[in-house]
Amino acid sequence: MRPLLLMLILLLPATTLAAPKANLWPYWQQASATSQVRVDHSRWQRLLDKYLVAAPQQTLFRYGQVSASDNYELDRYLRDLAKLDPRQLNRREQFAYWVNLYNAQTVKLILDNYPVSSITKLGGLFSFGPWDEQVLTITGQPLTLNDIEHRILRPIWKDPRIHYAVNCASLGCPDLLSKAFTANNSERLLEQAATRFINSRKGVAVSSSSTTLSSIYDWYGSDFGDKAALTKHINHYRDGAPISLGKIKYEYNWSLNDAK
């Protein structure tokens, strides 16, 4: 590749990069409706309790303060999840399994490379972030973060609120929640996450001349529907008077969600 062309590719802003489409990986579609297995997410919860900082407009993570022993506990939690076969879980347990796995693995990637200014700095030379890097092996299947989000969560559950549940360790991302997902609390947490994001300026910011939306609504527009469907979705969760989406701008902040 010519050096000039390479430089132009590396300088492309994030908003020009095509987001992955939902593309089902059939191997993971199986579930056991009668399964009573409960996955233990207590190690992940203890880490959230200790290092997550929740502020009115932004949740941050104390990456620089995570002790060696707690980093080990996170690694142990991920190894324990990887030993399971999620296809043997019921759907509600599966959902919590995949969301927690995604979020915990993202935190582990940051810790393994800390200090770093943005998750987009990780990955290979020609990569925008680590999302296509193999980070896990489950039932012998190599998995990337993109596999979890776009080949498992999105196509199986077909719920746009998934975008509020998975966290990419960035200030522009919907907040990492203070509670680990479980089979019993997932619906409540999804509603909470949608409400929090849409009522934050990084989600929806209205001015007299235009509405600035998170780039999530641009990248994954097919999940939220046309403008009318998106407007209905936003107004369902938005506090105050309903809005109409006229002139729209999109923004996203890839800086690390770091509590220094």
TrEMBL record:
InterPro entries registered for this protein in UniProt: DUF547 (IPR006869)
Signal sequence bounds: 1-18
Pfam families in the record: DUF547
DUF547 domain mapped to chain residues: 87-198
Keywords recorded for this protein, A-Z: Signal
The keyword Transmembrane appears for this protein: no
Keyword Signal among UniProt keywords: yes
Name of the protein in its database record: DUF547 domain-containing protein
Source organism of this protein record: Photobacterium aquae
Taxonomy of the source species: Bacteria, Pseudomonadati, Pseudomonadota, Gammaproteobacteria, Vibrionales
